[in-house]
Write a structure and sequence with these properties.
Helix content: 40-55%
Radius of gyration: 19 Å
Distance between the termini: 48 Å
Shape: globular
Strand content: 5-15%
């Protein structure tokens, strides 16, 4: 059955989600923060900045009016994580009670250390909340290259609804109830992807990256379980699945930023050159604070924080990780 859907956020992933859901037969509106961006998308039928070469159907509606969420069956939230709270405040003025909001954005709020679902819950009353995550680079989803994700909600019926809306021959969706685990996996893997890029930029090899990814998911799971998430979640699509794709693909803006930092550029220089939101930078600071709060050992995150925010040389950070006291793996 066709659903009325608003996609809030017209970056690469938001645009890809709009295209995918339109192809699934739904009534789709794509919201942009800027009116000129919305008009450009409508005129060009292409997101030339984030998805060049991907044609958008004329049947998608384009707008910069956030009241487009009114009367929708589903709202798909795909803004940068730092804009989630302000966007939700505006959405709350128009959204109907009982509307399903599924969060595709990934990150942790700076300062409050709130997950994005917690922000939505605080700012939009009486909506149903789900999150969706997994290996899903917009560049591939927009071209119909097969992948799988997990939709999670405290209400399994809500997760199953997201599953039914998004499922297609090229986009398979599993369901779950561990909202916290799915969110933490999606947010924290960006830090490890930054680190993977740094090792590439330094000139290290496949062994280094494999070790980093393996120990990185251990750290993510350690923090997640300390916060109350299910450990099994981190070995699934939103954990190890998303980690693999983000650490190995050049579609990953986090890895690209890391390569530049490993090659000698400062964090600010790398962010400027990537010219896209690099969620791992903000998430690193949040994860560093969460690790201290929950008294969890996260040596990779700690060294990443020192490189990003304290000017530590990346090679020195790697050496210090290698020289830590001997330990049992588990």
């Amino acid at each position: 059955m066709s659903q009325k859907i608003a996609i809030v956020g017209s970056g690469g992933w938001g645009t890809a989600a709009a295209l995918h859901l339109f192809k699934n037969g739904h009534d789709v509106t794509l919201w942009s923060w800027l009116d000129e961006e919305s008009k450009r998308l409508e005129k060009d039928l292409e997101n030339k900045e984030f998805l060049p070469g991907v044609t958008l159907p004329a049947g998608i509606n384009f707008t910069s009016d956030i009241s487009c969420v009114k009367g929708c069956d589903l709202v798909v939230l795909v803004t940068p994580s730092k804009a989630v709270r302000s966007t939700c405040k505006e959405m709350a003025k128009h959204i109907n009670n009982g509307t399903v909001v599924v969060i595709l954005s990934k990150g942790i709020e700076d300062g409050t250390l709130c997950t994005l679902s917690q922000i939505v819950e605080q700012e939009i009353k009486n909506c149903k909340i789900a999150v969706m995550s997994g290996p899903s680079h917009a560049e591939e989803v927009s071209r119909g290259i097969p992948t799988t994700n997990i939709a999670a909600s405290d209400d399994i019926k809500c997760a199953e609804y997201i599953q039914s809306v998004f499922m297609s021959d090229t986009f398979r969706v599993y369901t779950g109830t561990d909202v916290l685990g799915v969110e933490l996996g999606g947010a924290l893997k960006n830090i490890i992807a930054l680190c993977a890029g740094i090792t590439d930029g330094i000139g290290f090899g496949d062994n280094t990256k494999a070790a980093l990814m393996t120990r990185g998911i251990k750290e993510i799971a350690r923090l997640g379980t300390a916060m109350g998430a299910d450990s099994d979640t981190f070995w699934g699509l939103s954990g190890i699945g998303d980690l693999i794709v983000t650490c190995t693909s050049m579609h990953s803006r986090n890895r690209r930023a890391g390569i530049l930092i490993g090659g000698g550029k400062s964090m600010d220089e790398a962010l400027s050159e990537v010219h896209m939101v690099v969620e791992g930078v903000q998430s690193c600071r949040a994860a560093y604070e969460l690790a201290k709060k929950h008294m969890v050992e996260m040596p990779i995150v700690e060294k990443a924080y020192q490189v990003l925010y304290e000017g530590k040389n990346p090679k020195d950070a790697v050496l210090e990780l290698m020289q830590r006291d001997p330990k049992s793996e588990n």
